[in-house]
Every structure is written in structure tokens, then in C-alpha cells.
Amino acid sequence: MDLVAGSGMVVVEGRRVPVLDSGGAPGLPVLVALHGTFGRGAVFERLARDLAGLVRLVAPDQRGHGWSEPVSDGYGRAAFVADAAALVRALDAGPVVLLGHSLGGITAYQLAARQPELVSALIVEDVGPVMRSPEVAHPTLDVRGWPRSAPTRAELGDLIRARGVPDAGYFLRSAVPAEDGWRLLFDWDVMMAVQAGGVGDWSADWRGSRCPALLLRGTESTLLPAALANRMVAERPGTTRVDFPGAGHWVHDDAPTELAAAVTEFLRALGLAAERPHEDTMNDGNGEAAGG
């Protein structure tokens, strides 16, 4: 294990992996958070602040996303699971709490099933055991030929919204300044490959682990229908489900306070969160999480 101090990088098997790392006191329980397609580790900044002092949250930029290094071995399920396993081992923190959103949630429950010694508890945000039609109406988003850059960040958002995306905010988390304006860190063709790798029936993996699990579902999401969520709880003992009324697929954005509260309650019940001495320091006077 080689942590690059202060750089937001973890060296994993010789490869530099960019991470959001909330840090904290030595000995804090570690929560590894895996973003979904089109995301990056930074999408969990708010959650990291809300859980500060309770856990050390480490969220990598996964292959094909964010500032991750180029890869040559594709974007299939096995590659994502192997990357997550290697990161957990590199952190050298014993079994970790593993949280995954969307495609990251599939990776999370696959790793818990295939290498259970690495995972103490599982948190799955708005994804089911099946990612295909007809169980999920639109398991992939066709983004071929979408614009990757624009003169301004606002114009880039307008171009994405013009493709039928009502809220481009999640995509714009991966927008950075460039010489000629703003560009996205990911490539749309790579995102098609990432999505294709996630299509399938992963029910055996969902049922395959025995650690405690928390299932988080946005009631307005189309990617985790109520019927699939019901099935997940029924098929896997030790699963707790929390629904978030009015939230869509990105629950951590639509209901950040409520999601952090559900995660905190789950972890505390398992003894997997530290005691924070001053709870009232978590938020500032406006109800926003304090921090950078």
C-alpha cells in the first residue's frame, strides 16, 4: 500500500488512482464509495462532509471516469470489480463498508459476493439485481456523438440538456476548464462501453453475500422500480430498505441530508461508525455541511 499524502491519489498495483479522501482521525472506519456511470469520486463530496468524524470516506475515480489513467483491458464487470478489490486492499484498512451508486452499486454487491472478506457492510444506492429490459425500461442511455466541450460550462450544460437530459448537473461534475473553454473528463464512447458492461442479470451476485446491506431507493427513479426493490429485500436476508420520497436516481443529490442520516443510522447500528464528539459542528447555520 502506498498512499500519496495530500495528493488525492492512491497507488494501487503501480497505478495512480485519483480519490476523494475525507481523512480524519487514525482508526476511523473506512467507507469506500463507488460512483455510477458518467460520475467521479467528487460526486460524494457532500456525503463525505456529512459523515465527517464518523467514517473516513474514500471515493475513487473509476476506470474511464474523472482523472483516472487510461486502461487497455476494457470496461466489463470483472475489471471494475478487480479495481475495487485492489483499492480496498491498498487502503490496508481491513474489511470496509462499501457503498455504490448505480453501476457502482452493482460493482459493490458483486465484490461483496465474490470477495466477502473485503466487505463488512454493503450500501447500494438506486440500482437493482437486473439491468436490462423489460425489468428496467431504459437500462442504458445512448450518448453516442454527444458534445464533449463548449466555450463555457453553461453552454456545455445547455448542449447536454438539448439531448433530452433535464438536469445536466451530474454530467457537469466531470467538466473542467480547457484551453478552448470547458471539456468533459470522460469520453462518450467509453461511457457506452461502460454501460454495455453493466447490462445483464446479476441476481446471483446480489444474493451471494451475507454481510448487512442497506438499499437506498429514490421513489421517482426509473432504474430501480418498486417491484425490483421488493424482490431485493425478499431474496437477500439482512437487507434494510429506505425509500426517499420525491428523489430520483441520484439520491445523494436529491435528498443528501436524508441519505446521510440513513447511512449514519445503519452504520451506528452495526458499530461501524465512530462517535462524533460534537454533532452540532457537522452543519453550519444555513443547514449546509461545513467544509471545503
From TrEMBL:
Q: Name one GO molecular function term.
A: hydrolase activity
Note the InterPro entries from the entry. Answer: AB_hydrolase_1 (IPR000073), AB_hydrolase_fold (IPR029058), Carboxylesterase_BioH (IPR050228), Epox_hydrolase-like (IPR000639)
Keywords for the protein's UniProt record, in alphabetical order: Hydrolase
Tell me what this protein is called.
Alpha/beta hydrolase
Q: Which residues form the AB hydrolase-1 domain?
A: 31-262
* Gene3D superfamilies, per the entry: alpha/beta hydrolase (3.40.50.1820)
